């Protein structure tokens, strides 16, 4: 299997980035010479990439266009000269390549074949089962479009979290902040399996699900920086983000579990074919209220999917030190359960589909344990290496990173090319940069609004102890 590292081909990245910059003052060199150089440089780079399938005998005129994740033709790849504003910058690179490459007639030059399969089937890890005869399938079909979408979504969550880390260290984000990097396959995989009309509730590690439920990076980062363009108007922060059919973002460990069962009760009561994914951590799994909720959900056959995101630690305590049984998928006792590889997006997707179908068929609740890992410490105040070693984190990153695994799958099965995924990376970085720009320049919510939005339907009112805000007028 070919291993693709996250930061592979920095030269290609630099090249593409430089293509986006204008150099209006540099005189334009001869166009015919530039095109020739450009082709050789492209060719050399394509040949150097270990995972690009290559086809002989393709000349410049027959190079197929690269499609972006949205299926649109990438303007940077167009053959017109307007797409090559960077050519003056490319000249030194191209001439180095020309000097080193043996002169070959264009017809014999190798170029990356940009033909992809439209779907591929993969063997996935079998889930361990509890009180179930049959579990999720052990094969999953992935279409090219789905694969590109999952890649982009996971990469967006990863980059957004890394940006949040940076803004926190710059003291632009303050207060609580729990990052989700490492766990991306869980939120993107579940979202891939359910309908927008289904429901999700989670704990405070909520940024990934907020994005998955349809909010933009801009709204999430602006919420983290406490600005009025944030998804809770800058008043909620990291732990209190909401979207349509997404109920947060809850700071009290385990408290969202009974709320999730309540949402599932509403689904059943209103007779809609909807389900509620109720997420909690391995730490929360030891709480009494979780077991009370299991009881009611099973008794009333609620369409509730209990999802325990087992990331191996509750704050600084490992699961072995905290739980008498770490078989979280069995801890609903009379509730059927599945243990799922939470680092593999296809496993998560298939398991979530299976669990949702179980609930929709009226069989009552089901429990899903997702075995995952968080790269960051518990929160921004935890460096995350006093109770676990750097090597442990490194090992998970290098062997089972969800984005890397998905990328390998896509490339090795010819669902996508390395270059194309790189383009998505660039798009994502830009989106996150723009969002950060917004999140640091948008004004804070006006002071006179601080008493609003405490209840959804009531006008602002004096809150005992905080009504001093009312008399201030905002100047921003
Ligand atoms: C009722 C309650 N007790 C304690 C805390 C402090 N606390 C915050 S997070 C946490 C650990 C939870 O770990 P886990 O459920 O595994 O979630 P993870 O952070 O790993 O996502 C604790 C004890 C709290 N917020 N609420
Ligand atoms: Mg945990």
From TrEMBL:
Bias (Acidic residues) ranges: 1-11
Segments forming domain Dehydrogenase E1 component: 153-447
Keyword NAD belongs to the record: no
Cofactors: thiamine diphosphate; Mg(2+)
Keyword presence, Transport: no
A GO term, aspect molecular function: pyruvate dehydrogenase (acetyl-transferring) activity
Protein name: Pyruvate dehydrogenase E1 component subunit alpha
Organism, scientific name: Phascolarctos cinereus (Koala)
Lineage of origin: Eukaryota, Metazoa, Chordata, Craniata, Vertebrata
Gene: LOC110206774
């Amino acid at each position: 299997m070919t291993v693709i590292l996250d930061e592979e081909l920095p030269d290609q990245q630099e090249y593409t980035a430089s293509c986006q910059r204008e150099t209006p003052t540099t005189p334009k060199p001869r166009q015919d010479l530039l095109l020739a150089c450009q082709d050789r440089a492209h060719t050399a780079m394509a040949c150097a990439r270990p995972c690009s399938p290559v086809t002989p005998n393709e000349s410049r005129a027959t190079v197929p266009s690269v499609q972006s994740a949205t299926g649109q033709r990438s303007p940077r790849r167009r053959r017109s000269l307007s797409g090559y504003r960077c050519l003056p910058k490319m000249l030194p690179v191209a001439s180095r390549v020309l000097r080193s490459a043996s002169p070959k007639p264009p017809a014999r030059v190798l170029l990356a074949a940009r033909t992809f399969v439209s779907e591929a089937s993969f063997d996935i890890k079998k889930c361990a089962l509890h009180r179930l005869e049959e579990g999720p399938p052990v094969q999953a079909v992935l279409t090219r479009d789905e694969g590109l979408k999952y890649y982009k979504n996971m990469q967006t969550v990863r980059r957004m979290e890394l940006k949040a880390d940076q803004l926190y260290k710059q003291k632009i984000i303050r207060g609580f902040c729990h990052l989700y990097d490492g766990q991306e396959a869980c939120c993107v995989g579940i979202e891939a399996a359910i309908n927008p009309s289904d429901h999700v509730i989670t704990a405070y590690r909520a940024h990934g699900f907020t994005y998955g439920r349809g909010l933009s990076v801009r709204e999430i980062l602006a919420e983290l920086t406490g600005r009025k363009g944030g998804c809770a108007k800058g008043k909620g922060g990291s732990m209190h983000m909401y979207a349509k059919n997404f109920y947060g973002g809850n700071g009290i460990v385990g408290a969202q579990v009974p709320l999730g069962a309540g949402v599932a009760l509403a689904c059943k009561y209103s007779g809609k074919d909807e389900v509620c994914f109720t997420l909690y951590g391995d730490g929360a799994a030891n709480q009494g209220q979780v077991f009370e909720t299991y009881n009611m959900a099973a008794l009333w056959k609620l369409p509730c999917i209990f999802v325990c995101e087992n990331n191996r630690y509750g704050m600084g305590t490992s699961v072995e030190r905290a739980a008498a049984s770490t078989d979280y998928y069995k801890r609903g006792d009379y509730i059927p359960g599945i243990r799922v590889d939470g680092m593999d997006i296809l496993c998560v997707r298939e398991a979530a589909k299976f669990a949702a179908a179980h609930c929709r068929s009226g069989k009552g609740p089901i429990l899903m344990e997702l075995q995952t890992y968080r790269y960051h410490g518990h929160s921004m105040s935890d460096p995350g290496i006093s109770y676990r070693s750097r090597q442990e984190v490194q090992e998970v990153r290098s062997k089972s990173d969800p984005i890397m695994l998905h990328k390998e799958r896509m490339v090795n099965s010819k669902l996508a090319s390395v270059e194309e995924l790189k383009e998505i990376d660039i798009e994502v970085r830009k989106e996150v940069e723009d969002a950060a720009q917004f999140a640091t320049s948008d004004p804070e919510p006006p002071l006179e609004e601080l008493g609003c939005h405490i209840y959804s339907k009531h006008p602002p009112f004096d809150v005992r102890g905080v009504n001093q805000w009312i008399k201030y007028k905002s100047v921003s």
